[in-house]
Amino acid sequence: MHNAHRNRWNWIALALFALAAHVAAVDRQDIRLPDIPRYQTLKCDFHMHTVFSDGQVWPTWRVEEAWRDGLDAIALTDHIEYQPKKEDVLPRLQRPFEIAQDLGSERGVIVIRGAEITKAVPPGHFNALFLADITPLATNNLAVQMEEARKQDAFVFWNHPGWRVKVNEAVILPLHSELAAQKLVQGTELFNGSDLYSNVWSWALQNKLTLLANSDTHTPLDPPLANHAKHRTLTLVFAKERTADGIKEALRAGRTALWAGDILVGPGELLAPLFAAAVQVAPPHHRTAKVALLKITNHSDVPFNLTRKGGPGPTKLELPAGKTVLLKLTLAAKQPLPTLDYTVDNLLTAPDTPLPVTLTLPGTTPGK
Ligand SMILES: [Zn+2]
Ligand SMILES: [Zn+2]
Fold it and tell me: How far is the CA of 283 from the centre of ligand 1 (A)?
């Protein structure tokens, strides 16, 4: 190629590079949590605020944070009845979503139109997601708001059930159970930020409510640490498709798990395949009559802390996030490799109920 041509190509390449460099302002750090059979594992935060109520950021910044933090979906849920900045920011309920949605589609982050129904405690606050129009909910009558949310086919959940009531404990009124029975409220936060409302857990399971965990952030969020060692509180949604409708269907069906700190909460039928998809046991690379050495890799960003239920294997088995550990099994005699029965202490299916798992070692027949 002639020099003149080469120069021209260099300039074109430079121009393209300059354009490409402006596509995304921040790098995304994907969350390593695998899909499970039949479902995609979507990382979602369904509760946050902007300057349109008592938050400190413009709506687009919530999308930028979600992109950066590796999320699939967010809901903007500004307060309907509480707008302390209304002298400076016009109290227009539709604007947070309208402002954020274009950047959402550019970043590939699903933005859900939500609002926080904000009543005194008790009964407290409720988020309505997938609203078509928030304006009809701008009333002080909770019953009217709930009916309107139903008319719009919204998904409604109880927020931070113990806030301003008792530390980490909720007061569950007959009204809450009534709202759940009528399916006007279909879910409840179990975690809000770092707060856990543990006494809501059993009540929610009995009332077949979907469990959620959200950041409820009002301030700008810090960027994630490497491998999300510290992360915002999230709801994992197991969806048939990565769309707003897919999320709604999964929320209605109760297919969620909650990730708060190092804890995952969810139904066993979701946590078990998630654990199985995240953890890989390699065939032994060293085997004598009495010893087998093998590698176990945790491909996820969640550390797993296991305790032996009985049978062979170490009493405690720690599988750090994103790492491979070496397991040494001492065997009584030359025998087929056993299966290892453990509980995962930080994966909970109900209060004080860790997930049981069986590690099948390659080369053994399951069930032996
Ligand atoms: Zn609230
Ligand atoms: Zn809130």
Answer: 50
